[in-house]
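Request: Give me one sample?
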Amino acid sequence: MSEFAIKAEHLSKLYTLGKVGTGSFRQDIKRWWMSGVLKKPDPFFSEAMESDASRIWALKDVSFEVKQGEVFGIIGSNGAGKSTLLKILSNIVKPTSGAVRGRGRMNSLLEVGTGFHDELSGRENIYLNGHFLGMHRQEINSKFDEIVEFAGIGQFIDTPVKRYSSGMYMRLAFAVAAHLEPDILVVDEVLAVGDAEFQQKCLGKMHDVSSKLGRTILFVSHNMQAVMNLCHRAMHLEKGNIVDIGTASRVVNHYLKRHQKIHRSQSWEQIEHSPGNSSVRVQFVELIPHVKNEGDPITVRTPLTIRFKFWNLIEGQNLCVGLHLFNSGRECVFDVCSVARNYERGLIEGHCEIPGDFLNDGSYYFSLIFVKDTSVELFYLEECLAMEVEDFRENMNWYGKWSGYVRPRFPFRMKQITTEEKVLL
């Protein structure tokens, strides 16, 4: 069994509303002496439990292990306790109860520029962060050029970081955190502030840090696709409690099912209560999976039909209907539309076929858009249908998550051209 890098045991964190910090300086010293030196129960914890003041458990009895070299994802809604947990693991916040055991030096990137000093230059901050990690100057020197190149701030490396743009600040912060070779890298939603190209660059670097260097990564993100692509396992927190721990794909799919209403059909028989406007109103939308038996799961092999009906309320409108498909990360997988034509007033029916062996496994959401004259949006019915697509591999070894948004089965033609044992190159 692999040795753990982090072991959290019964972590709880209690915040008392109406108090700033933990109280007076005298109380802080008392807490430090009792819990830090004498190893006795936290006096603030005892006082808070006896108090009638309003209390919030940011974490409650959280226990888990992260193996060395593992990329471990932490997901959950805002206020679930994710950031509090990372601050405890990073030794920034002290838990009310419980303990954390870890092996190796940790570098935490909990917000842009954590650990940076605004008055110091980029160069000075690189060495300062390395010193905090316990690295010798020679070790930092060996990584210095890589950090500057990754961050792309060569000409500004001797400028105080307070003069950096938010993008420069972000690039340098991530480059320092990832390149100074901590045993454990903690990343909390920092990719949200970068552009798409930089986000992909960061994800690639985190993958390299884990797979090639064997470092452990704790990754918190609201981008479910990034969690599934990058992480081996994941944990779902909700209101300070652990809801689920397991493989990243399973935990993410369960999380999405828990927070998104998965529906395969919707109908509105009364036109006045149906979604739409004075131009069009939707009566019916349906997702039909072509499976052998009713209730069978949708897999990557399953063909699909999207059916819809809508009322055209204006005579002679030149209409087309578009279908947008989004993945769990709210990224558009494709956008297709019907041929535009003029319609009389009345009820109109349409359908769109999606072949099997096209979509990758994961969570998907369909939206319908009604367009006039090929360019004027009349109405957008957002996320009207949703589905889970399961993986299916026949006579194949398992190699983890299949890359990409789609996984079509294109024909390959191959043949033997020689049977010689030795081939000269």
Q: What stands out?
A: The longest strand covers residues 376-389. Confidence is low (pLDDT under 50) at residues 20-25, 48-53.
